[in-house]
Structures are given as structure tokens and as C-alpha cells.
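Action item from last meeting closed. Structure (296 res):
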């Protein structure tokens, strides 16, 4: 779904010419996909797939028809939500820097702010670690700088885009603020996780409360709904956090998210983390939906 890094085309081929041999029912899908891709790239005639069309024209066509015509064009998420979920997943995966840069630019093109992008990567420290977050922030700096140099963001926010240190909380308040947020977001399951660590790793339990929630979740750059959407995207993409994914599926619903948003996000992640990761995410969502149906 994510266009590979662009290079100068040598033969003038284009995804549209590559699509000329597609199935007869693919015309609408291709046109719809091209319109969606244009929204992400901010151009009327995106040429980012031209180099791929030269060597793998069917892959270029699949990217547009399936990635954007079928998946990206589905209802259920706004373009902003799609791009936040995508950059969160790519940051967590840590192995697709060109595509991450493409989607950071795409996030700006669909209305995300620099602040929201930076906050998403700060949030990444909790789920994918500091190296993944730092690499993602380096990619964001490159995109912000390139757009500023090109003059494409005349009203751009400051390059730092992050909340200044004024958001720091006194040490004595971090735990209290963190536990309150943990309960608001996760309900009874959150404190239970912390309590379960008391006999083996009490400091880790405290860090979950003080750092993950007292420091990161309490920041004002993203609302809780968006933070939980990013958390689901990261846990799904990683593929190693099944229990935590279930916690955050519940949390997303707790803070006002919908089942449709969850399923749409998990479907989109098939293109970025693969179908197995998406299917595992849907299986987890099925469990949480059934659990809530039984309790209601």
C-alpha cells in the first residue's frame, strides 16, 4: 500500500499505463485508488509509483487498485485517522523508513499537524521502544525540513513541533496522574496489570504508571481516542503483543472509539504489517466484542 521510494523514471512509464492490461472490472477501483493516492500525495497526478511500474507493473497496479481503491477508500476512518494509524504502525515496525517518510508527508497533506505527528512518535516509545521512536522522529525531521526548504508549508509550525518542558509534572504527581489516566483508559484491567507485577517487578509496574501514563498519555498533543488508535496500530503491527492489543482494543472502546473504526484500521494494516498480523488483530477484536456483548 505504501509507495516505495521514488526515483527518476527512465522510460516514461506510469502506473496508469501499467494498468491498461488490468481486468475489465478494475477501472473503477483504479480510478478510486488514484484519487485516494492523490489525496495522500497532495498532487493531481502522483508519479511516485512510476519507477515500480517499470519493473513490476502489476505491483504498481495492485498498490493503487487494492491498497488505495479497495482498502484506503473504505468508510470507517477519516484520512487523518488512517495516516496516524499508518505512521504509528510503520514507526513500530522500524524497517520501512522510506515508506514512513512518505506517510509522514501524507499525514501533513491530509490535515495532520506536525505536533500530532511528533506526539505519535513520542507515544511510540511506550510500545516499540525508544530506538524506534527516535528513528521515526529523525524521519519526521527530514520531512519537515524538506517541506520548509521547498516552501510547501508556508504556515508550518516550528520545526520542534513538540510541547516544551512546561508540560513536565512534579515527580510526586506523576504516579497519581498516571493511575487516574490508567483507570480512565483501561478500566479495571489497567491497575490489575500493575498489581500483577508487584511480586516480581514492582519498579516496572511503577514505570508503567509514571512514564507510560503519567508522562506520555497525559500529554496534550493527541486526544485519548487518537492515542488508543495509534496503540492498536502499533500492537497489531508488532505481532508480539496479543495481550496488550486486547487491553487497548477495550481501551479504544472505553474512550469513545467504535467497532467499525477498529475493523477498518485492522483491515488497513494488512497492507503495512501483512495479512497474518491483520487477521490476528481481527481475531483479538472478535474476542473483545464478544466479551462486551456477553457483559451487556
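Sequence:
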Amino acid at each position: 500500500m505504501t509507495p516505495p521510494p521514488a526515483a527518476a523514471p527512465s522510460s516514461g512509464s506510469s502506473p496508469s499505463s501499467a494498468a491498461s492490461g488490468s481486468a475489465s472490472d478494475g477501472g473503477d477501483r483504479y480510478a478510486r485508488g488514484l484519487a485516494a493516492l492523490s489525496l495522500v500525495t497532495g498532487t493531481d497526478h502522483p508519479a511516485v509509483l512510476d519507477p515500480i511500474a517499470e519493473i513490476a507493473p502489476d505491483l504498481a497496479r495492485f498498490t493503487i487498485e487494492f491498497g488505495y481503491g479497495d482498502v484506503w477508500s473504505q468508510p470507517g476512518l477519516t484520512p487523518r485517522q488512517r495516516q496516524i494509524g499508518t505512521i504509528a504502525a510503520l514507526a513500530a515496525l522500524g524497517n520501512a523508513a522510506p515508506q514512513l517518510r512518505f506517510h509522514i508527508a501524507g499525514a501533513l497533506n491530509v490535515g495532520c499537524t506536525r505536533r500530532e505527528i511528533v506526539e505519535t512518535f513520542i507515544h511510540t516509545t511506550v510500545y516499540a521502544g525508544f530506538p524506534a521512536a527516535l528513528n521515526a522522529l529523525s524521519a519526521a525531521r527530514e520531512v519537515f525540513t524538506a517541506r520548509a526548504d521547498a516552501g510547501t508549508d508556508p504556515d508550518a509550525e516550528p520545526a520542534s513541533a513538540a510541547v516544551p518542558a512546561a508540560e513536565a509534572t512534579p515527580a510526586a504527581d506523576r504516579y497519581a496522574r498516571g493511575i487516574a489516566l490508567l483507570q480512565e483508559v483501561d478500566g479495571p484491567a489497567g491497575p490489575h496489570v500493575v498489581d500483577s507485577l508487584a511480586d516480581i517487578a514492582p519498579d516496572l509496574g511503577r514505570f508503567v504508571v509514571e512514564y507510560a501514563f503519567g508522562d506520555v498519555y497525559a500529554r496534550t498533543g493527541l486526544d485519548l481516542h487518537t492515542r488508543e488508535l495509534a496503540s492498536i496500530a502499533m500492537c497489531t503491527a508488532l505481532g508480539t503483543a496479543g495481550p496488550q492489543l486486547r487491553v487497548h482494543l477495550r481501551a479504544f472502546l472505553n474512550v469513545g472509539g467504535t467497532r467499525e473504526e477498529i475493523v477498518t484500521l485492522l483491515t488497513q494494516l494488512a497492507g503495512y504489517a501483512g495479512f497474518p498480523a491483520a487477521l490476528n488483530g481481527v481475531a483479538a477484536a472478535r474476542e473483545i466484542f464478544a466479551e462486551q456483548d456477553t457483559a451487556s
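Note appended to the action item: The first helix runs from residue 15 to 18.
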